[in-house]
From TrEMBL:
This is GntR family transcriptional regulator. PANTHER family: MANNOSYL-D-GLYCERATE TRANSPORT/METABOLISM SYSTEM REPRESSOR MNGR-RELATED (PTHR44846), MANNOSYL-D-GLYCERATE TRANSPORT_METABOLISM SYSTEM REPRESSOR MNGR-RELATED (PTHR44846:SF1). It comes from Streptacidiphilus jiangxiensis. GO terms for biological process: negative regulation of DNA-templated transcription. It comes from the Bacteria. Pfam families: GntR, UTRA. Transmembrane segments: none annotated. Keywords: DNA-binding, Transcription, Transcription regulation. SUPFAM superfamilies: Chorismate lyase-like (SSF64288), Winged helix' DNA-binding domain (SSF46785). Residues 34-99 form the HTH gntR-type domain. One of its GO terms (molecular function) is DNA-binding transcription factor activity.
Length: 270
């Protein structure tokens, strides 16, 4: 039985990010017949490179006539471009989206990260309540089960665009004045820093999820849009947990970067 020929892998310059590999960009399967919608998607993607942010795209009918395909094929191509963050809805139109915001995985506030990219951060308060810690929260914050905990839920904004949803939990016994003193429209990290808290380290887990119906409504997205979920426990210099945070970011508007180092094996310095 003969096998299909396999082309050798593309060679790139040292240091090139994996996303720039030619094989990834081409997206051509081994049999050499990419789906028609994918070919249209590549052509529309090239059109997007010539459009400025917020510029309306040609209509589905115009694209269909230009590329000689059905409107259904165009619709599927645009749907994928929307999931990738290349286009977005604006009223009744589909427009070219700007570049994704790139957040480094460091101990810094959302406010700082957005401002570094020339965007204006903002927040809309959803919930600011006092609850009793369940077993999971008690373990994360190292408090007794049933201890009072502040729950702060806010919609995250960038230039007034809804891009995420964040829930933060803090011990009410450690921060008793939080409800009276903190303005939920501002940076919580700035408030905690002013209160004398010095962050030292955190454990964070990242995964992809689909938003719940409630989250879809709050963030203003669609149920099919992949979301990036970050769960974090942050500690101070004494090793005491300061906060437990659940952050949900739109996958079409955010990406995250991390600087990696080699961990020395145990006993390597002995």
């Amino acid at each position: 039985m003969s096998s299909l020929p396999v082309e050798p892998p593309s060679v790139t310059s040292p240091g090139a990010p994996p996303a720039t590999l030619a094989a990834v960009r081409a997206g051509v399967p081994e049999h050499g017949r990419p789906p028609k919608y994918f070919q249209v998607k590549q052509k529309i993607d090239a059109v997007l490179d010539e459009l400025g942010q917020g510029t309306p795209l040609p209509t589905e009918r115009e694209f269909a006539e230009r590329f000689g395909v059905s409107r259904m094929t165009v619709r599927q191509a645009i749907r994928e471009l929307r999931l990738e963050g290349r286009v977005r809805r604006s009223g009744r139109s589909t427009v070219a989206a700007g570049p994704k915001m790139v957040q480094p995985l460091i101990l810094a506030s959302y406010t700082e990260g957005v401002r570094r990219q020339g965007r204006n951060p903002g927040r809309e308060l959803v919930v600011f309540e006092r609850i009793a810690a369940d077993e999971a929260l008690a373990a994360g914050l190292q408090v007794a089960v049933g201890a009072p905990v502040f729950h702060l839920e806010r919609v995250l904004l960038a230039d007034d665009e809804r891009v995420g949803l964040e829930s933060t939990y803090l011990s009410a016994e450690r921060f008793p004045a939080l409800a009276a003193e903190f303005d939920p429209r501002t940076s919580l990290y700035a408030y905690l820093h002013a209160a004398g808290v010095v962050f030292a380290d955190a454990d964070e887990r990242i995964e992809t999820v689909l938003a719940s119906p409630r989250e879809v409504q709050l963030v203003g997205t669609t149920p099919a849009l992949p979301m990036l979920l970050l769960n974090r426990v942050t500690r101070d210099r004494d090793g005491r947990p300061v906060e437990c945070v659940r952050s949900l970011y739109r996958g079409d508007r955010f990406s995250f970067t991390a600087h990696l180092t080699v961990e020395e094996p145990p006993g390597s310095r002995s």
